[in-house]
Write a structure and sequence with these properties.
- It is built from 19 helices and 26 strands.
- By secondary structure, it is α/β, with parallel strands linked by helices.
- Strands 13, 17, 18, 19, 20, 22, 23, 24, 25 and 26 form a 10-stranded mixed β-sheet that branches. Strands 9, 10, 11, 12, 14, 15, 16 and 21 form an 8-stranded mixed β-sheet that branches.
- A hairpin with a 6-residue loop joins β22 and β23.
Length: 689
């Protein structure tokens, strides 16, 4: 087993990443609307962390020593450290939020609670409750029921104390689920003058508690927001004979009953009520009891009403790649050269246009594509369905187990099959995360193939704010391997060995790690010869211990290693044995850095890859993933230019050091300001082809 000192614990590193998100909420140079959004992102990230990572650690504790061999330290110790960090971050979160509230009030924007309303606003809130809210809620009198119904994950509840001033013995507890799935969390109130007033849905309910409970003899009402986060990992039988659909549906039902991994409550909650809830919900200190502020589920702040801000400037819109401006035949452009799309700067419409073109081209015979997370009203699906209606053979490899998109993908399966699309569900024991497509066209007895490989999902919504790369290509070797992957996926008894036939695309779990190890080894050999050797890594996370160890080996002999990592970094970037320290930064800004790019110096003849896979065990060993070489020198240069812009980041960059301190990159004297996402937009917008 590896020494714990060799690697930073993944979960602690992830919490450090989320602290960078909180830094953005704190940063006064950001527009206050964006700062509120970052609070929402921080909260949403933390929810998912408890649903998945903390749930996994809890399972390891229950499984005992047999599971602990996968960690370098005791899961109890990790959970204890998580608890301490999360409470510290929660305190910082509360301070940041309080500061934002003060700033909003200076701008005459007020988030009012139920005790701060004017006469006109009270009338509005009473009417809104009667017309919109009342029929959406049913209070649970929890003392009178033998078993409290399961509190839903992702929901918040108003825990109420009901009393009667003249009869202290008359006190009852009630729970009300806040109906944010059907009603907006934020309601704009009628206001006077230049003032903009907003109230939260739970405070509308708080105001109307007398309306709900006074008829039952109560005249004293207190309400406190609580929430439970549950284990979201699906327990699915991976036996090849098991019906995946049935198992997935059963898993989704069980997820709703998952073990509690966190209980968050208003720190001012009535103490007897808190003790009662902890007892009735069968919680303990190990379930991460987190005291917080008055408001929970801050993820909804990602949808804070923008209309209250008079000076909110829209961000620059995506533009169509100059080579793909319509009207044009995209496949004719691809016949001449490869094209790299860089989202969210380039418009995702070009991908839709290519699929639409394939759908109506009389010479196109078939389309095959993978789907992991699709947009709610997917234009990709619409194009594929129209291709079927135009007589094309369409195959979709649909990953039903894309976390938190399982239910949506089950619905897409039904829709696609109803339209005549062949839906492939992948493998029983690993997810298909590769982002690939191949289009076959036969014209004048000649077959031509067109395709694309992406680092991100084929999702036009997330492509507006996820930074990703998508290569449109007719390269025969690349497309031959894509066809091999689809042959493997469509096989009734797929054998991983068949993927070894891929000669151009490194494919996980077969040879991707080995490919990157070999490339690092070549840089090590070059450095030992005292020749220039370098590696640039852009990824979401760096966790895989084999590859980290290999990077350590490279740093010891002086290979120049530079990394741009958004999330977890389990590597120590500075060690006494390194001849040259590893340079690592994280960029947290308006767009989510999601693309994976790997550049190896290769004695002056760069080898450049884009990939769907992070350097993590789950991607390299437990998923079908692809990396794709970029051959055209002009596109190689474009990618390297973009990476160098990011490496020069000195506005939104943080240094990833051994102590996880998240210090900002300091701009040197006379050094120009580089905000990489702004600079990349300008670089691509001015680029001539």
């Amino acid at each position: 087993m590896k020494s714990a000192k060799q690697f930073i614990i993944r979960d602690i590193s992830w919490l450090s990443f989320n602290a960078r998100v909180l830094q953005e909420a704190k940063d006064p140079s950001n527009h206050i609307y964006d700062r509120l959004r970052f609070l929402g992102i921080f909260s949403n990230n933390l929810d998912e962390f408890f649903r998945v990572r903390v749930a996994t650690l809890n399972k390891m504790i229950r499984l005992g020593k047999s599971a602990r061999v996968h960690l370098e330290t005791n899961p109890d110790k990790i959970l204890s450290e998580i608890q301490d960090i999360v409470i510290d971050q929660q305190n910082e979160f509360d301070k940041v939020y309080a500061g934002i509230i003060d700033e909003l009030e200076r701008k005459k924007i007020f988030i009012k609670n139920e005790k701060q309303l004017t006469k006109a606003q009270k009338e509005f809130v009473a009417a809104y409750f009667d017309n919109k809210v009342r029929t959406q809620i049913i209070p649970l009198m929890i003392e009178s029921i033998p078993h409290i119904p399961l509190l839903r994950d992702k929901s918040i509840y108003l825990a109420c104390v009901l009393g009667e001033t003249s009869n202290p013995m008359l006190q009852r507890y009630a729970l009300i689920e806040i109906p944010t799935k059907v009603l907006p969390r934020f309601v704009i109130l009628p206001s006077e003058g230049k003032e903009k007033d907003i109230i939260l849905l739970e405070d509308i309910i708080r105001f109307n508690l007398p309306h709900l409970f006074a008829p039952f003899g109560f005249n004293r009402f207190m309400g406190y927001i609580i929430k439970v986060t549950r284990d979201a990992e699906l327990e699915i039988d991976n036996d090849v004979n098991t019906n995946l659909i049935d198992e997935l549906e059963k898993g989704l039902k069980n997820r709703k009953r998952g073990r509690a991994t966190r209980f968050v409550f208003d720190r001012h909650i009535d103490t007897p009520l808190l003790e009662y809830l902890i007892k009735r919900l069968s919680l303990s200190k190990k379930d991460n009891l987190i005291p917080g502020g008055r408001i929970h589920n801050f993820k909804d702040f990602m949808n804070f009403p923008a209309s209250v801000f008079a000076n909110l400037q829209p961000r620059p819109g995506a533009f169509v790649h100059p080579l793909l401006k319509q009207p044009c035949r995209i496949m004719e452009v691809m016949d001449k050269r490869d094209v790299m799309l860089n989202f969210p700067y380039h418009s995702f419409d070009s991908v839709i246009d290519l699929l639409r073109e394939a759908a109506i081209d009389p010479f196109v015979q078939s389309i095959k594509i993978t789907a992991y997370r699709l947009a709610k009203d997917s234009k990709v699906v619409n194009a594929l369905i129209n291709a079927v209606r135009n007589g094309k053979q369409v195959t979709v490899m649909l990953e039903l187990r894309a976390r938190f998109d399982e239910e949506a993908n089950l619905q897409w399966k039904t829709r696609l099959e109803e339209e005549g699309v062949k839906v492939v569900l992948g493998l029983p024991n690993m997810k298909v995360h590769a982002k690939i497509c191949v289009i076959k066209k036969r014209e004048f007895n000649k077959t031509r193939q067109y395709g694309f490989v992406s680092t991100g999902n084929f999702n036009e919504n997330t492509a507006q704010y996820y930074g990703d790369f998508c290569l449109l290509t007719t390269n025969r070797n690349i497309l031959a391997d894509i066809n091999r992957i689809f042959t493997f996926l469509e096989s009734p008894r797929p054998k991983l060995e068949s993927l070894k036939a891929c000669t151009t695309l490194p494919v996980a779990p077969v040879n991707m790690r080995k490919t990157f190890v070999d490339l690092i080894n070549k840089e090590i050999r070059t450095a030992k010869k005292k020749k220039p050797a370098s590696i640039i890594i852009k990824s979401n996370s760096l966790v895989d211990q084999v590859l980290i160890s290999k990077l350590y080996e490279a740093a010891k002999v002086g290979v120049d290693i530079k990394m741009i990592l958004r999330g977890s970094c389990c590597a120590y970037t500075k060690q006494k044995v390194f001849k040259k320290d590893i340079q690592a930064i994280s960029i947290i800004d308006e767009y989510l850095e999601h693309g994976r790019v790997f550049v190896f110096h290769n004695e002056g003849n760069p080898k450049v890859y884009i990939s769907s896979a992070d350097w993590m065990v789950r991607n390299l060993d437990h998923r079908v993933e692809t990396a794709c070489p970029v051959y055209e020198p002009e596109i190689q240069k474009e990618l390297i230019d973009i990476l160098n812009i990011q490496l020069a980041e000195n506005v939104k960059g943080r240094i990833l050091d051994n102590e996880q301190r998240n210090r900002y990159v300091v701009r040197k004297e006379n050094e120009p300001e580089v905000r990489s996402q702004v600079a990349i937009y300008g670089y691509l917008h001015k680029k001539e082809y």
